[in-house]
Design goal:
7-stranded mixed beta sheet, 6 domains, elongated, single chain
Length: 708
């Protein structure tokens, strides 16, 4: 120990005996230097310091010693301290003084600074940090300069990867195999220790770290859930611990997704992974948040989204700009995640993890966009629903619930049937794809929590999503209305953020069955969705109205349509898909009473050339004297089969169909259609083709309601 150290002890010593010992050792060192090294002048000058004479400095030291507490005083203080175990805590020293103005035996901890305090006989004195994590710790610190040490407070494990290099003294060490041990976090001082001779890991406490051996090296120190050593090391990863000396209060989201909706001024949180968690990183510390409720901004210009690491939950803090320019002040246990100032979001994460959706009104769109896309390019649609989408009562049923990561064909569900109807339309040959992602028994809240997992198996970019939730939500009273609405807004926001345009659908009609009340579902849940669609400028398809009409007016047996009074069977899904097709195919002619469809209808398609009157003889569709109420007639005598007349109709009531022509073959959905047949409610593609080798003529179709 050099003379400088002795001088420091003399200057800063607390107890008289420490100072006396330093004086003794310092003088002895000066004597040795003078005797053995002949360095008297130098050492005396050093010892004299700022004094003119060394004797002057010794006189000053005597005065310092005399001012120190004597042995009796120190014993009295120690008696008051007792065994060092705190007798209680107070928020600050003022509160302690107020509660115990005359002192007390034992020590008390003040939580504002973490210090312990004792009664010195006349006042409460500050004893310094209570159980400082490095008190009594040997100076055997190693530095990791490659590899990875992981300390996981959640799983109570410490692991050290193979070939993690540790520098200690003038040598480097590394384990030749992966090491992992279990430990029990105490909440107080904990030391991760590596034995480079035995190549083993252990976690010591303040009680036994003094027994550390010469072959053991301290890699990390934790105290009260905080990593104190090392700090900002890229080779040390902690889970469940914060960092002690990190100046920044800013954290980053590294798993999951946080969405801020400018429209509702709400933060929503979507976990990811098996435990549906959001993970926040701050330095080398990681925090896992598994429960996360929506947070809505109150009035004010500036709000901060923080993570309270004590409660392990996200919170909103209202703030204002201060004179020094600061906007965020908090406890050291708060981590700043994002800020919203005048509707502008600022955050400190990748945009993959925190996103802002502008006002939903700016994302308004009309169903006509989908209708145009279906006629001009390949379009990918996903149907998001419950068991009425999943197709629980259909034949060859397989459930999406069995494995959320798998896709099913769903050919007998309305999704698969609608896919086929659209692809079979004239001019729709773009190989459109509709994916069925219905999950039995699920609600809109469940969809909100699992949307990413529901969409992730779809291997191509999704253009549109039909949202058909509502039956299982049982929104029968006012207490559930807000959450039902907010959950829809959350899902809509996230779809829009992904570039997917949402379509809101009312629920499939069902009977008053079990605990589900079909009338209430339609009157409340479906109307909420309808109003929401209007408010946000989104399309709404009233699937409930369409399927209710089928159940009320179809001549099919109800048991074939809806065998358990809740879920459609094969036939019900067929008819549901046909109704949806009528909403998406603009060439559809709706038939609900007495109707006539001829060549004059611009929704009729034909392989024939129409006359322009001036060159009538050269065309296939000719003007004729009105016959059967038609002024135009398709005429063809050809060795090739051509479609003379084709139209898609949606029959809203069972109707009798008549067609007018000669030598033609008329089909409906590819099946032979006889004149005078009854067509039940549904979507029909009716075609009239010529008979080769003879003169074929066709004028049109007429419909009359079938009497009930």
């Amino acid at each position: 120990m050099g003379i400088d150290q002795y001088l420091k002890v003399i200057k800063e010593g607390v107890f008289g005996r420490d100072v006396r010992q330093a004086i003794h050792d310092g003088i002895e060192r000066v004597y040795e230097d003078a005797t053995f090294d002949g360095n008297t002048n130098m050492e005396v000058a050093k010892a004299r310091g700022t004094f003119d004479h060394l004797s002057d400095r010794f006189s000053t030291i005597d005065n310092i010693i005399n001012s120190k507490a004597d042995e009796a005083e120190i014993k009295a203080m120690l008696n008051n301290i007792l065994d060092g175990t705190p007798k209680g805590t107070y928020p600050n020293v003022s509160a302690l003084r107020s509660a115990k103005p005359s002192g007390d035996k034992g020590i008390y901890v003040t939580t504002d600074n973490g210090h312990w305090n004792y009664w010195d006989g006349s006042s409460w004195a500050d004893g310094g940090s209570y159980q400082s994590p490095t008190d009594g710790v040997p100076n055997q610190f190693g530095v990791i300069f490659d590899g990875l040490l992981t300390i996981d407070r959640k799983t109570k494990t410490v692991s050290l990867k193979k070939d993690t290099w540790i520098s200690f003294g003038n040598k480097n060490y590394a384990p030749n195999a992966n090491l992992s041990i279990s430990y029990e976090p105490t909440g107080l001082s904990e030391y991760v220790v590596y034995d480079f001779q035995n190549k083993g890991l252990t976690v010591m406490t303040l009680a036994n770290v003094k027994n550390i051996t010469s072959t053991q090296v301290i890699l990390a120190i934790m105290y009260k859930g905080t990593l104190h050593y090392p700090v900002n090391s890229m080779f040390v990863k902690t889970i469940g611990y914060s960092e002690y000396t990190q100046d920044s209060l800013i954290g980053s989201v590294v798993q999951g997704k946080i969405i801020y909706d400018n429209y509702s001024k709400t933060f929503s949180f979507n976990g990811f992974g098996e435990q549906n968690e959001i993970i926040v990183s701050k330095g080398t510390s990681y925090y896992s948040i598994k429960e996360h409720e929506n947070l809505q901004l109150s009035s004010g210009f500036l709000h901060h989204l923080i993570l309270d690491t004590i409660e392990n939950k996200f919170k909103l803090v209202k703030s204002s700009v201060m004179s020094n320019g600061a906007t965020f002040t908090s406890k050291n246990t708060d981590i700043l995640i994002a800020s919203v100032y005048l509707e502008e979001l600022t955050h400190y994460s990748s945009n993959n993890f925190i996103q802002s959706t502008k006002s939903l009104l700016n994302n308004a769109w009309q169903l006509e966009e989908l209708i145009v896309d279906l006629q001009t390019k390949k379009t990918v649609i996903v149907t998001l629903g419950d068991s009425t989408t999943d197709g629980w009562r259909t034949s060859n049923y397989t459930s999406n619930n069995d494995n959320i990561n798998n896709l099913k064909e769903g050919n007998n569900t309305y999704s698969g049937i609608l896919n086929n109807i659209i692809n079979q339309q004239r001019g729709y040959n773009f190989d459109h794809k509709i994916y069925n992602r219905g999950f039995s028994g699920k609600t809109i809240y469940w969809l909100r929590q699992n949307l990413d997992a529901v969409l992730s198996p779809i291997p191509e970019s999704i253009d549109y999503a039909f949202i058909a939730m509502g039956i299982n939500d049982m929104v029968y009273d006012v207490s559930k209305i807000k959450s039902f609405r907010d959950d829809h807004i959350n899902v809509i926001n996230r779809l829009l953020a992904k570039g997917i345009k949402p379509v809101l659908m009312s629920t499939q009609a069902e009977f008053e069955n079990y605990k589900r009340f079909g009338s209430k579902i339609n009157a409340i849940a479906d109307n909420i969705k309808k109003d929401l669609a209007e408010e946000l400028g989104l399309p709404f398809i009233d699937y409930n109205a369409g399927t209710s009409n089928i159940l009320n007016h179809s001549e099919y047996k109800l048991k074939d349509l809806i065998p358990d009074m809740c879920h459609f069977g094969d036939l019900g899904h067929q008819k549901g898909a046909e109704f949806l097709a009528s909403q998406l195919i603009p060439q559809t002619v709706f038939v609900s009473g007495i109707s006539k469809i001829g060549y004059q209808n611009n929704k009729v398609a034909s392989d024939l050339n129409y006359s322009d009157y001036l060159t009538d003889e050269q065309k296939d569709v000719k003007w004729i004297t009105r016959t059967d109420g038609f002024d135009l007639e398709g005429q063809l005598n050809s060795t090739q089969i051509k479609t003379m007349f084709e139209v898609s109709v949606y029959i809203e009531r069972p109707s009798i169909i008549r067609y007018f022509g000669d030598n033609v073959i008329v089909t409906s959905n590819g099946q032979s259609l006889s004149d005078g047949a009854v067509l039940d409610i549904g979507f029909y593609r009716i075609s009239a083709k010529n008979v080769t080798g003879v003169a074929s003529k066709f004028r049109g179709l007429k419909f009359n309601l079938k009497e009930v």
